[in-house]
Amino acid sequence: MKSRFVSLFAGPMVAARMNGIIWMHVGFEISMKVAFHDLDPLQVVWHGNYLKYFDIARFGLFAARGIDLYAYMLEKQIAFPVTRTSLKHISPLRAFDEFVCRATVTEAYYKIGMAFEIRKTDGGILCARGTSEQLAVRYPEMEMEFGIPEDIRQALQ
């Protein structure tokens, strides 16, 4: 797998405040190749594997920004579970297709919002789009916090 950090705008990261929410546009993309074991009986990628690809890009983005959510949970007793996902399948991936999965931070104030996109490397055909939300939760009590901790928010800018 090949990855790279992507800033969607030239120069420093751009954030816009709308309705009290900071909207961000920090991105990360990773190149992958469909493995045979990711296919369903119709020889296309099984629908649940797209969420796996999103997770790989999500954690690549966190790593590129110096964030280890597992270590953060152990050290500061705050976890960041995924609380909402959406996925739109557009064009199927097949065995051994090469593709790029991009994760983009869209918000990191009350929640961590991300948008995802999967495109085939050959021709740039859009295969899937999706979103996710993660909340800050006090661990092990599993009590929701009212916002994302400042250090995580700053790292995602």
| Global structural class | alpha+beta
Biggest beta sheet summary: 7 strands, antiparallel
Number of domains: 1
Approximately how much beta-strand content do the residues carry?
35-45%
CATH topology-level fold name: Thiol Ester Dehydrase, Chain A
Number of helices: 3
CATH superfamily: Hotdog Thioesterase
Order of helices and strands: EEEHHEEEEEEEH
- The global form is elongated
- How many beta strands in the DSSP annotation? 10
Low-confidence parts: 7-15
CATH class group: Alpha Beta
Overall pLDDT, averaged? 89
The value of Rg in angstroms is 16 Å
Secondary structure: helix percent: 10-25%
The CATH architecture category equals: Roll
Report how far the terminal alpha carbons are from each other: 25 Å
Essential attributes:
157 residues, 3 helices, three-stranded antiparallel beta sheet, alpha+beta, Thiol Ester Dehydrase, Chain A, 10 strands
Descriptive overview:
This protein has about 160 residues and is of the alpha+beta class. The chain has a single domain, classed as Thiol Ester Dehydrase, Chain A. The chain contains three helices and ten strands, in the order βββααβββββββα. Mean pLDDT is about 90; it is low at about 5-15.
Summarize the structure.
Helices cover 20% and strands 42% of the residues.
Layout of helices and strands:
Elements (H helix, E strand, L loop, with lengths): L1 E6 L7 E4 L2 E13 L14 H17 L4 H8 L1 E2 L2 E8 L8 E11 L3 E9 L5 E9 L2 E2 L4 E2 L5 H6 L2
Antiparallel strand pairs: 1-3, 2-3, 3-6, 4-9, 5-8, 6-7, 7-8, 9-10
